[in-house]
Amino acid sequence: MPVFTPPADLFNPLADNPCRTREDVERALQALVRPLEAFRSPGGARVRLDAAAAHFDLAAADFEGFARPLWGLAPAAAGGATWIDWEPVARGLAAGTDPEHPEYWGAVGDRDQRLVELAAIGLTLRLAGEHVWEPLSDRQKRNVADYLLAARLKEYADNNWKFFRLMVDMGLKAVGVSFDPEPSDRFRGEIDALYLGDGWYRDGSPRHVDHYIPFAFHFYGLILATLDDDARNERFRERAKAFSADISRWYADDGAALVFGRSMTYRFATAGIWGAMAFASEEALPWGVIKGYYLRQLRWWTRQPIAHRDGVLSVGYTYPNLLMSESYNSASSPYWALKAFLPLALPADHPFWSAEELPCPARPASRALRHPGMVVSNPPGDSIALSSGQQNLTMRFGAEKYAKFAYSARYGFSVESDERRFFDAVLDGVIGFSDDGRHGRTREANEIALIAHETLYALWRPFPDVEVESWVYWAEPFHVRVHRVRTPRPLHTIEGGFAVARQGDIAPIVDESAGRALVETKADLSAIVDLNSTLGRTGRAHRAPPNTNLIAPKTIVPQLLGQIPAGESLLACAVTAQGNPTALRDALGSLPPSPDVTALERLMAGSGVPVTAMTGAADR
Fold it and tell me: Which N-terminal stretch is annotated as signal sequence (predicted)?
């Protein structure tokens, strides 16, 4: 019986797009925004895509649906696109800022979601003012100006939000509206206070060093350096250049971006850093290399089922998945991905577009990125970051998004779906503990986090009375994890490797034995091997609950299970996964040596640097 194969474009409006040229990229933007018009309100101000809620009010969510497509449309218009129908956008801008109109977006409050979306309005006034400002009546222009002027005096979050006021200022200047510059001058100083060095920022406090650094801090900074005539913006160019070599390690040679932290539903916004360098004509790397990172990212997304049947982007990462979402994700949130289309503002003869796309450069075996507290390696088809020193205790699944030991572009990471089913937990990239066999605990925060050369160390507590010291380092193609556990009572433990996709009805090859778990599919091999078998840990190929992984809706993860007695215990394992099962199978015959904990202690005592000490006094 023939197997049913759905059309390639059923769940991805970009499926037929090769994403090789400027014309391809503009066609991709058209395909993404086309489905949205069916959901625009009569007055044009609101775009509502479904009934799911975010933590902010519905009017703000509808405004989000209006504003986020502008991240792509405004640059396209500046680059000469003539296919955009601006009439409903201009009509909606007038309606949304009119307190007497039924589609009014509502008054802007402190730390309000509307402050986020107004950044796109600022960019649009600067790049496409003739389409959205000039058609308005004097009264409508006054309403728009008053709305923006009132918003810029509100309290903004102490993180990347500081840029939003600067983006609004840029738009106001473009249309001749004057304002008091003092609040924004103060924000510039506060943005500088978030700068860590080497191109890295921290996104507020506690320290978050995630994708908001490339697709927010550097993205907005390079826009301001290009469009806003202020000498102080030049510092953003210098920082972006310093950042380029480090951030390139977050991208696999096939285009996939490292899956780490919050807001992964913004998807190909992760191409925004490369697009912003092009927009700013900042050749931080050779143009062909920048173009390669940019286009490979877009092409990777053309192969993922990222949309609903109507072509509207879903909340999720590579597939619809509300489980992984944040409380601030409405149905329109994924359209921040359109920040990737900033280079459409450039003409076809710009060096970025005219350069020959170059393949991903060869990269050293691993690179320590001290500011995010990572050691990154780039095996074929992946970017894998060993991580320590970050935490997020305020966000749903914050531990899964920030505190695992390893993150991958190819295998993503998983979130847990039930805290009361310890033996059914995914636990990829972590070690978990349970004292009752039902509830599990993993690393959430560190008491101490150090980095020495390319080794990470952390002291943390899964329970108040249980102390764990962990060391993580590369021994290519493995990474090694070492845990010294001190506990006053016996504990169950499960430690997981990388979760790989279960492919339909094809049964994977599994090895579940003493001290070893291995999963091999047609596309991948993932393994975890005990390097210290005194506790007698047993291997398991665990079929994880569905829809827990960001990359694949059904996964299987190799795990080591064991019992830890009261007192002090030492556990060590080697973990690996790659998309070349044959080559990796050979490597399993030559495991890393059992770790020398005394040598690891000496390393940290002699050259270990606190990760938090790299991030400024506000972090400590």
Answer: none
Q: How many residues does the chain have?
A: 620
Residues 602-612: tens digit of each pLDDT: 999 999 998 86
- At 130-176, the pLDDT tens digits run 999 999 999 999 999 999 999 999 999 999 999 999 999 999 999 99
Q: What is the CA radius of gyration of the chain?
A: 25
Supply the DSSP string of 211-259, one letter for each residue: THIIIIIIHHHHHHHHHS--GGGHHHHHHHHHHHHHHHTTB-TTSPBP-
Cβ–Cβ contacts within 10 Å for residue 589, how many?
Answer: 6
**Integer Cα distance of 166 and 186 in angstroms:** 11
pLDDT band at 615; cut points 50, 70, 90: very low
CATH 1.50.10.10: which residues of the chain?
Answer: 22-354
The tens digit of pLDDT for each residue in 515-544 reads 999 999 999 999 999 998 778 899 999 999
Taking alpha carbons only, the member of 282, 308, 246 closest to residue 32 is 308
Supply the pLDDT for residue 389: 81
The three-state DSSP-derived secondary structure of 514-532 is ECEEEEECCCCEEEEEECC
Distance of alpha carbon 400 from alpha carbon 416, whole angstroms: 8
Side-chain half-sphere CA neighbours of 243 within 13 A: 31
Token pair 């390139």 is at which residue? 248
Say if residues 575 and 479 touch (Cβ distance below 8 Å).
yes
Tell me the CA distances in angstroms from 444 to 105, 262, 463, 492, one per residue in order. 38, 15, 10, 18
Q: Is the pLDDT of residue 616 over 80?
A: no
For residue range 370-417, what is the model confidence (pLDDT) as tens digits?
A: 999 999 999 999 999 999 988 888 889 999 999 999 999 999 999 999
Exposed/middle/buried for residue 571 (C-beta within 10 Å: 0-12, 13-18, 19+): buried
Give yes or no for a contact between 551 and 411, defined as CB atoms under 8 angstroms apart.
Answer: yes
CA–CA dist 497, 518 (Å, integer) = 9
Q: What is the DSSP letter of 465?
A: T
Pure H helices in 367-491? 398-402
Place of tokens 């690179």: 367
CATH architecture of 366-619: Distorted Sandwich (2.70)
pLDDT in tens, 427-463: 999 999 999 999 999 999 999 999 999 999 999 999 9
Is 386 in contact with 374 (CB distance < 8 Å)? yes
Q: Determine if residue 111 is left, alpha or beta; phi over 0 gives left, psi from -120 to 50 gives alpha, anything else beta.
A: left
Beta-bridge partners for 482? 471, 572
Q: Which string of b and e fits 417-454 if b means at least 16 CB within 10 Å? A: beeeebeebbbbbbbbbbbeeeebbbbbbbebbbbbeb
Nearest in space to 344 (alpha carbons), one of 14, 5, 1, 19: 19
Q: Is the pLDDT of residue 114 over 70?
A: yes
Question: In the Cβ-directed half-sphere of 36, how many Cα atoms lie within 13 Å?
Answer: 30
Which of 288-297, 337-346, 575-584 is the least confident region? 575-584
Query: What is the assigned CATH class of domain 22-354?
Result: mainly alpha
Residue spans in the chain of domains classed CATH 2.70.98: 366-619
Residue in this structure with the two tokens 């625009």, named with its chain if needed: 40
> What's the gap between Cα 272 and its chain centre?
11
Q: Where are the beta strands (DSSP E) in 395-465?
A: 406-408, 431-434, 448-452, 455-463
Distance between CA atoms of residues 162 and 159, nearest Å: 6
